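Hi everyone,

Forwarding the result from last night's run.
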Amino acid sequence: MNANSSVDAHAAVTAPGRVVLLTTSHRVAPGLLSWPAWQALRAADRVLCADGAHPQLPYLRDAGIAVEETSPTAEELVAVCAGGRTAVVVATGEGEPALTDGLARLAGSGRVSMPELELLPASYDLPGARLLDLVQVMDRIRDECPWSSQQTHQGLAKYAMEEAYELVEAIEDGDRDELREELGDVLLQVVFHACIAEEDEESPFSVDDVAGTIVAKLVHRHPHVFGDATATTPEEVKEHWLRTKAVEKRRASVTDGVPLHQPSLALAAKLTARARTAGLDVPLPAVEGVGYELLALAARAESEGVDPEAALRAAARAYRDAIRVTEGTLDGPSSSPPASPSSSSPPSSSSPPSPSSPSSPAPSPAQAPSSGERA
């Protein structure tokens, strides 16, 4: 053996080797790993996993990968890699914090020749993957929580209204943190109701059925996006929307599909909008009383492109601030009081309703076109 060969052999023996921490997502089907992950697994000298029930293990073994069920300490793992060997650690759901902390301490001590460390994501979450977590959490809560397990659609209805109002308030306040939280609360209502619906003996459906229904509706009502139709303006989009909706619903009256439980001003505005859009000349009832005066005001607001609910809510907020000023609980008028929607806002018939919001309890000015509409 010449001198160069001896040096190479000594270097190979003393090389610190390599540790690959392989992470996977439980939201992706087991066995669906990236190509670099498969390459690392096949090239490794040893593949280790602390969790014998890890969902990836059966698929790795089916692929001919020998996996050792063991939980090495940091020192033991460094020893495994001595001599230039590569060890792949298939991380558990918690991410092996004890092992990585131990490796960090060893590296910081300066007393050990550390192997090369690599974090290799073997599978990735797709957008929306956390929704699977929500479904799983809600399923468990439904099974194990004494309160949640007894809830019904009827009992939860009030919470859907409450959460929708809180979402609108977060939107109008411009509070991004509150907006994120309230969107989650509204989403919870959808998943909770779908969870309950699965238990119905006569007509069960799941959250997947709910999602499938809205996906089919969106695709069908957007032929200019998913089909051969053409639409270059909001008006043309609305024409597509109304035409496909009319074919789907085949309603006998223009008032069909208008939810009567929505806030009264929104209901009045929606009815007048339906009549106007259909070309029906229906005079308002010539009856005295506050209710009929409010009906006339709502009709006027709708004709001017103003959301009466949002306009009254803005005025009420201004009055609330005036009360607080009088009480001395507010230093002065709000620096930027919510403005009443003006006639520059598009009229309620100028754009299609939001298909994902069957009923808008308290629409903000920007939501005015979709208030009180059933998709």
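The two ends are 83 Å apart (CA to CA).

Cheers,
N.
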